Amino acid sequence: MERLSIGEFGARSRLSPKALRLYQELGLLEPAAVDPDTGYRSYEPAQLERAHLIALLRRIALPLAEIKAILALEPAAAARRIAAYWGGVEAEHDARRDLAGYVVDLLSGRERVMYEVATRTVPERSLLCRLRHVADEQETFALGKAFLAIFKERPQPLVAGAPFLMLIYHGEVSPDSDGPVEFCRPVPAEQAEQVAALYPELTLRSEPAHEEAFVHVGQAQLSGAQWQLVSESLRGWSAAERRVPSDLGLRLTYLAKPPITPDSRPEIDFAVPLTRGHPPYASA
């Protein structure tokens, strides 16, 4: 059987030895044979097609982990996954364009509200919470998954009319800031101490009654840029209405709408708690 040296294979595939070593380490493109004594690697000509596909996918900036998942699929499924990934890239590009337009308008004195903002009154609540500093949204997701797993192991009934989960940002999560963030679940106030005893790893606290401005996102999957536009809409509304955000933290509220099934997805609101009343402003 014909074999190609790594140099020959690299020349024909237009992949450098560095790239071929990396793809081997990640399980994307294994050599056909490796000499046990010299470590000399060789490839079969049929592997050039796989190498070409990897190069094409890297040209459209697919992450290596995504490429590995695609290569494990049948061609039709791989095509659907690539199309879905690229659709997400285009949506993120559109959202960044909208965010850039918002910033241009802001700096030009043409501030605008991108999403419809409403207000509501939230009653005092007893909450079971877990507070952590996180480096990025992946760590935030992992924290939330672990938080929900606690209640899956030891179920408790939901509080009527309250969200089943809240994610509170007490600080920005970015390369320059680590939050903290807090996951909370409302529990019945009259049984709060008894319920809290079942979850010693969580903190029981009370949140005062307050008014909050919110944007109803629904079941939409928003990109980071779109979430920023939602946040800016709330900020712009607060400035226009002369309302001051409180120190209770920006939050996502996840609402379970009945009937609840294994396939149910929560409705999501993005909210900012407000201080009571309107602050004094000097007249123009």
Care to give the gist of this entry?
The chain has 284 residues and is of the alpha+beta class. It is 39% helix and 23% strand. It contains 8 helices and 13 strands.
Return the structural class.
Answer: alpha+beta
Q: How many beta strands in the DSSP annotation?
A: 13
- Total of DSSP H or I helical runs spanning 4+ residues: 8
Global shape: elongated
What are the secondary-structure elements, in order, as H or E?
A: EHHEEHHHEEHEEEEHEEHEE
Task: Please tell me about this protein's structure.
- The chain has 284 residues and is of the alpha+beta class.
- The protein is 39% helix and 23% strand.
- The strands form 3 sheets. Strands 4-11-13-12-6-9-5-10 form an 8-stranded antiparallel beta sheet.
- It is elongated and about 75 Å long.
List keywords for this structure.
284 residues; alpha+beta; eight-stranded antiparallel sheet; three-stranded antiparallel sheet; 8 helices; 13 strands; 39% helix; disordered C terminus
